[in-house]
């Protein structure tokens, strides 16, 4: 896990986002335990409080559950909920891309052509 002190995103949010991506992508499976709060804090050289805040954020989103004395484990993920979260992420990224396209002065047609090319390239891989 790589954290950036200069990104403007709080460290706890970066940690939560990294675990969330691993959970939603299936890298972390249902029932798997996350590293202990203390060991992760030590590994990342950050405060235990920061690590705890990240885990609490994941728990509030329903991605993990904390068990007293055992730590946090990954919850079962509802496939419909997963799809919805992925769709939301795609929408956010596309909105950001559209904003950048407007700043660059691209027309809708140019933007659509660019997306078409990118889609074709991704199918070739």
Question: How would you describe the overall organization of this protein?
Answer:
By secondary structure, this protein is mostly helical. The protein starts with 10 loop residues before the first helix and ends with a helix. It is elongated and about 55 Å long. Helix 1 (11-25) crosses helix 3 and helix 2 (37-44) crosses helix 3 (48-60). Helices cover 63% and strands 6% of the residues. The protein has helices at residues 11-25, 37-44, 48-60, 79-104, 108-124, and strands at 64-67, 71-74. Strands 1-2 form a two-stranded antiparallel ribbon. It has two domains: 11-74, Arc Repressor Mutant, subunit A (Orthogonal Bundle); 79-124.
Low-confidence blocks of residues: none
What shape does the CA trace take?
elongated
CATH topology of the largest domain: Arc Repressor Mutant, subunit A
In CATH terms, what is the architecture of the largest domain?
Orthogonal Bundle
Summarize the structure.
This protein has helices at 11-25, 37-44, 48-60, 79-104, 108-124; strands at residues 64-67, 71-74. With 125 residues, the protein is mainly α.
Relevant terms:
125 residues; Arc Repressor Mutant, subunit A; 2 domains; two-stranded antiparallel ribbon; mainly alpha; 63% helix
List strands and helices in order, with pairings.
Blueprint: H1 11-25, H2 37-44, H3 48-60, E1 64-67, E2 71-74, H4 79-104, H5 108-124
Antiparallel strand pairs: 1-2
Helix pairs in contact: 1-3, 2-3
